[in-house]
């Protein structure tokens, strides 16, 4: 039995498989077994470096460099205060959030109709277009850094939030189209046809009926646009200098003449993890399907 | 799903086409432009044919960077894919612990890449890092800025830390889609744990695993920020991967011609390999649809 219980789903066999399973989990007592140990070790491996960062952010510099301790001896929030009261620090977060949100909105707005077209109709060149879109996801940002810089400088968008948002569309739009297409595939075509027979126009059908049906897909696509725009640094750093400088680039400031200000660096790092952790909480139930790009 | 032929669907695709063309085709043409021209400065360019391509193909520097890149991507895939599948098989199926695992596992994926670099830079330092300090205390000579193996190990462990969860989450999503009836049938047949994995779980996961391999291959082939922050491409050139070398060449030395030729060949390599994965993937999709 210990052998089969490792197989997901094999341990609990419901009497009637056709019946919908109750959504609320049967609160089983947490028994230590092989799987739990594997997961425990893996999660520990994931959390240790993050814990170390948090730990450092709560120490003073002299404690970081002077003593080696597994937890802060003199707990201090000084590093966070430094960041949250200095405009040149916290504006980095504001800038990052602005272009990330702009990018998410733009990506979704253009990707929704396109994904619908790909999932419902076949037209001349659709397969080639779809692959061409994906190739942009594969384009190394390093290749595009310099041309982007020249392009956005020449149209006068250098150092603006919209420039970064547009540049990130390069990889986020294809991704959004891909995810949304996967989710839309799962909606039967009969729904569209019935709506058109009932006299719905395309626009009204799309916003009133279709979008609510794939709302989880939209949420997941938005999450992924947010995520990839948030974590990208090369393009956002190349395209900004002062006014739209992202937090990730601001962090290099901690290397001063007197060495690196480790405490502030760690605190800034911890604060960059927070927005991601917040959004992840909202999409936690769809995240696995989202990572599979809707193709499960 | 059989699709209706409708050429008007192009209008729905048009916004995407315009936007992506603006941010992909124009810059790409700039790169192509640079790759076939040379300059004496002052923005005076002249036609240079395929000279830069010939030069880059003959340059040892590019082949070395490509070699390191291929080794790195292969090691990454060889570790992350089996490990990710293994973790997915051990994840709780539902309830509080499933959500808990999902959230914690997704955390590394949402950390900005240079912060990932910073985390490992700190974590591995002998004076203030937990990992470096511990290794030092048990007598292992570990210094990722000096030692070749230490640098490679750090970069690889960092990538495994950063991205294994992606493979695990994808495999988990694949596992979730397997109906319980399959497992019951296997149980009635008294199938071994290995047989269940080989004949039920693996085939069902294959589609998502292909996505995982595709994504991991593409992203590891483009890796720039994390190793740049941790090792800066060093010691020497030990961890100078393609993107790092390219940025050095284009923005550091401003050798636009060679860098552009390099970019195009780099892009073509990724494109070719990704096309292979993509074709396999769409064929799998078709087979599943039947």
From TrEMBL, chain A:
<feature type="transmembrane region" description="Helical">
    <location>
        <begin position="209"/>
        <end position="231"/>
    </location>
</feature>
<feature type="transmembrane region" description="Helical">
    <location>
        <begin position="130"/>
        <end position="149"/>
    </location>
</feature>
<dbReference type="Pfam" id="PF00528">
    <property type="entry name" value="BPD_transp_1"/>
</dbReference>
<feature type="transmembrane region" description="Helical">
    <location>
        <begin position="97"/>
        <end position="118"/>
    </location>
</feature>
<keyword id="KW-0812">Transmembrane</keyword>
<dbReference type="InterPro" id="IPR000515">
    <property type="entry name" value="MetI-like"/>
</dbReference>
<feature type="transmembrane region" description="Helical">
    <location>
        <begin position="262"/>
        <end position="283"/>
    </location>
</feature>
<keyword id="KW-0813">Transport</keyword>
<feature type="domain" description="ABC transmembrane type-1">
    <location>
        <begin position="93"/>
        <end position="283"/>
    </location>
</feature>
<dbReference type="InterPro" id="IPR035906">
    <property type="entry name" value="MetI-like_sf"/>
</dbReference>
<feature type="transmembrane region" description="Helical">
    <location>
        <begin position="36"/>
        <end position="54"/>
    </location>
</feature>
<feature type="transmembrane region" description="Helical">
    <location>
        <begin position="161"/>
        <end position="180"/>
    </location>
</feature>
<keyword id="KW-0472">Membrane</keyword>
<keyword id="KW-1003">Cell membrane</keyword>
<dbReference type="GO" id="GO:0055085">
    <property type="term" value="P:transmembrane transport"/>
</dbReference>
<dbReference type="InterPro" id="IPR050901">
    <property type="entry name" value="BP-dep_ABC_trans_perm"/>
</dbReference>
<comment type="similarity">
    <text>Belongs to the binding-protein-dependent transport system permease family.</text>
</comment>
<protein>
    <submittedName>
        <fullName>Carbohydrate ABC transporter membrane protein 2, CUT1 family</fullName>
    </submittedName>
</protein>
<dbReference type="GO" id="GO:0005886">
    <property type="term" value="C:plasma membrane"/>
</dbReference>
<keyword id="KW-1133">Transmembrane helix</keyword>
Automatic annotation (TrEMBL), chain B:
<dbReference type="Pfam" id="PF00528">
    <property type="entry name" value="BPD_transp_1"/>
</dbReference>
<feature type="transmembrane region" description="Helical">
    <location>
        <begin position="12"/>
        <end position="36"/>
    </location>
</feature>
<dbReference type="GO" id="GO:0055085">
    <property type="term" value="P:transmembrane transport"/>
</dbReference>
<keyword id="KW-1133">Transmembrane helix</keyword>
<keyword id="KW-0472">Membrane</keyword>
<feature type="transmembrane region" description="Helical">
    <location>
        <begin position="149"/>
        <end position="175"/>
    </location>
</feature>
<feature type="transmembrane region" description="Helical">
    <location>
        <begin position="96"/>
        <end position="123"/>
    </location>
</feature>
<feature type="transmembrane region" description="Helical">
    <location>
        <begin position="70"/>
        <end position="89"/>
    </location>
</feature>
<comment type="similarity">
    <text>Belongs to the binding-protein-dependent transport system permease family.</text>
</comment>
<keyword id="KW-0812">Transmembrane</keyword>
<dbReference type="InterPro" id="IPR035906">
    <property type="entry name" value="MetI-like_sf"/>
</dbReference>
<protein>
    <submittedName>
        <fullName>Carbohydrate ABC transporter membrane protein 1, CUT1 family</fullName>
    </submittedName>
</protein>
<feature type="transmembrane region" description="Helical">
    <location>
        <begin position="196"/>
        <end position="218"/>
    </location>
</feature>
<dbReference type="InterPro" id="IPR000515">
    <property type="entry name" value="MetI-like"/>
</dbReference>
<feature type="transmembrane region" description="Helical">
    <location>
        <begin position="259"/>
        <end position="280"/>
    </location>
</feature>
<keyword id="KW-0813">Transport</keyword>
<feature type="domain" description="ABC transmembrane type-1">
    <location>
        <begin position="66"/>
        <end position="277"/>
    </location>
</feature>
<dbReference type="InterPro" id="IPR052730">
    <property type="entry name" value="Sugar_ABC_transporter"/>
</dbReference>
<dbReference type="GO" id="GO:0005886">
    <property type="term" value="C:plasma membrane"/>
</dbReference>
């Amino acid at each position: 039995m210990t052998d089969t219980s490792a197989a997901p789903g094999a341990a609990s066999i419901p009497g009637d498989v056709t019946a919908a399973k109750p959504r609320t989990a049967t609160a089983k007592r947490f028994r230590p077994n092989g799987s739990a140990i594997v997961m425990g070790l893996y999660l520990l491996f994931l959390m240790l470096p993050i814990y170390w960062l948090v730990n450092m952010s709560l120490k003073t510099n002299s404690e970081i460099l002077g003593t080696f301790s597994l937890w802060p001896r003199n707990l201090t929030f000084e590093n966070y205060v430094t960041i949250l009261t200095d405009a040149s620090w916290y504006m980095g977060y504001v800038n990052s959030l602005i272009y990330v949100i702009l990018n998410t909105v733009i990506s979704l707005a253009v990707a929704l109709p396109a994904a619908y077209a790909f999932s419902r109709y076949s037209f001349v060149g659709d397969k080639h277009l779809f692959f061409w879109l994906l190739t942009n996801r594969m384009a190394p940002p390093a290749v595009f850094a310099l041309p982007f810089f020249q392009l956005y400088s020449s149209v006068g968008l250098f150092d603006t939030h919209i420039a970064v948002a547009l540049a990130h569309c390069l990889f986020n739009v294809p991704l959004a189209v891909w995810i949304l297409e996967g989710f839309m595939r799962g909606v039967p075509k009969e729904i569209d046809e019935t709506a058109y027979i009932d006299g719905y126009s395309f626009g009204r059908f799309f916003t009133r009926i279709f979008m609510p049906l794939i709302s989880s897909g939209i949420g997941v696509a938005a999450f992924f646009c947010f995520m990839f725009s948030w974590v990208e640094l090369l393009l956002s750093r190349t395209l900004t200098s002062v006014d739209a400088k992202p937090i990730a680039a601001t962090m290099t400031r901690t290397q001063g003449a007197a060495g690196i200000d480790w405490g502030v660096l760690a605190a800034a790092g911890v604060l960059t993890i927070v927005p991601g952790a917040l959004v992840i909480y909202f999409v936690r139930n769809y995240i696995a399907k989202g990572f599979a790009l809707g193709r499960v | 799903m059989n699709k209706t032929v409708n050429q008007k669907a192009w209008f729905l695709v048009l916004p995407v086409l315009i936007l992506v063309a603006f941010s992909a085709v124009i810059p790409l043409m700039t790169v192509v432009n640079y790759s076939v021209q040379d300059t004496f400065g002052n923005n005076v360019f002249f036609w240079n044919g395929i000279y830069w391509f010939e030069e880059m193909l003959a340059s040892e520097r590019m082949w070395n960077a490509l070699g390191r890149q291929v080794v790195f991507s292969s090691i990454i895939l060889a570790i992350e894919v089996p490990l990710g599948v293994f973790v997915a098989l051990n994840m709780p199926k539902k309830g509080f612990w499933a959500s808990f695992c999902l959230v914690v596992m997704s955390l590394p994926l949402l950390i900005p890449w240079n912060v990932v670099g910073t985390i490992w830079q700190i974590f591995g330092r002998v004076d203030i890092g937990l990992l470096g300090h511990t290794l030092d205390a048990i007598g292992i000579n570990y210094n990722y800025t000096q030692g070749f193996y230490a640098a490679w190990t750090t970069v690889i462990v960092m990538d495994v830390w950063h991205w294994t969860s992606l493979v695990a989450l994808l495999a988990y999503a694949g596992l979730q889609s397997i109906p319980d009836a399959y497992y019951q049938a296997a149980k009635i047949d008294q199938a071994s744990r290995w047989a269940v994995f080989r004949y039920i779980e693996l085939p069902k996961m294959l589609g998502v695993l292909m996505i995982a391999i595709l994504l991991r291959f593409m992203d590891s082939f483009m890796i720039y920020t994390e190793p740049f922050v941790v090792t800066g491409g060093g010691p020497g050139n030990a961890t100078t991967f393609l993107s790092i070398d390219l940025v050095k060449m284009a923005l550091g030395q401003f050798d636009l011609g060679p860098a552009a030729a390099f970019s195009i060949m780099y892009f073509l390599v990724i494109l070719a390999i990704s096309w292979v994965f993509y074709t396999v993937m769409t064929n799998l999709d078709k087979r599943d649809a039947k």
